[in-house]
Amino acid sequence: MMNQSPAETALSRAMIRWSLTKATPVTETPTSTIYKVEQNGRDPAALKVLKPGRSEDERRGGALLAWYGGEGAVTVFDSTDDAVFMEWVEGKTLGDPARQGRDEEATEAFGHVVQLLHKPRDDAPEDLIPLRQRFQALFETNVRAWPYTARDLYARAVGIGLAMFDKPSRVVPLHGDLHHDNILSSSRGWLAIDPKGLLGDPTYEVANAFINPLGAQKLTADPGRIARLADSFAVRLGFNRKRILGFAAAHAALSACWDIEDGNSIAGQLDVLPHLLTAYDKA
Q1: What does pTM read for this prediction?
Q2: Dist CA 117 CA 172 (whole Å)
Q3: Superfamily of segment(s) 95-282
Q4: How confident is the model at residue 55 (pLDDT cuts 50, 70, 90)?
Q5: At 265, which helix (H) or strand (E)?
Q6: Which of 88, 157, 161, 252 could staple 44 via S-S, CB 3.0–4.6 A?
Q7: Is 233 helix (H, G, I), strand (E, B) or coil?
Q8: CATH code for the domain defined by 6-87
Q9: Of these residues, 57, 96, 177, 271, which one is catalytic?
Q10: Which of 98, 283, 63, 22 is nearest to 195 (CA)?
Q11: Can 271 be counted among the known catalytic residues?
């Protein structure tokens, strides 16, 4: 025990606390490591061990996940400052049917998950991040960081983003990173994972759907698909259609700003953004 790293110590504590056995590492992110574990012969469970110094966002997301109470999201059984013990789900992601020609089915499922996540509940976590703060990268990026031919797209998206926040709206707890590959199939239906824990306009929750799933650029850049998504979400969720498209366009540009910051390609966002801006103008 004396020679263990902080992460190993956190894993050991969690295994003892919840009487877990057979911790098999499944995936690692910059902020956590996910293990598949067993508990007294019951069904497998998931254990997320948070990395030292990188765990604030994960804790916030874990608290929101627990608040959902298993409705539209994986169930959290218990948590500590450095670990989250939760339901094990190993089904396919919602990105799979979308990539395999069943996008309308995926869109219906996406909307249903949002309905469940946004059900009124008491006592929301208190440290959720304001949505406006999440958009800082969009509003603070230097336009010169964008390709010369796309700077007008960036400027228009900034204007739309500012307009979204200038108009008062309802404020609810938001997953904040809901996309097709953050929704998994299970015996209980489609379940969201990995929330960011934001607070803001409910319409933003569907924005990520317009530039996802990854690996389906022909689909996401189809103006007909953009219209179908906006129609479906407006009808199912009661969201304003123009506002849906406004947040979708602003988020696509925000996503591009993050990728520019990280040195990644923004080709995917640039394929979609012009069509989102056109759809917004026409809505």
Answers
A1: 0.93
A2: 10
A3: Aminoglycoside phosphotransferase (APH), C-terminal lobe (3.90.1200.10)
A4: low
A5: none
A6: 88
A7: helix
A8: 3.30.200.20
A9: 177
A10: 63
A11: no
